[in-house]
Amino acid sequence: MMNVPTKIYTPEELSELLHLHYQSILAEIHRGNLQAYKLKGKYRISEDQLLEYLKKNLAN
Question: What are the residue boundaries of the structural domains of the chain, listed by start?
Answer without folding.
Answer: 8-58
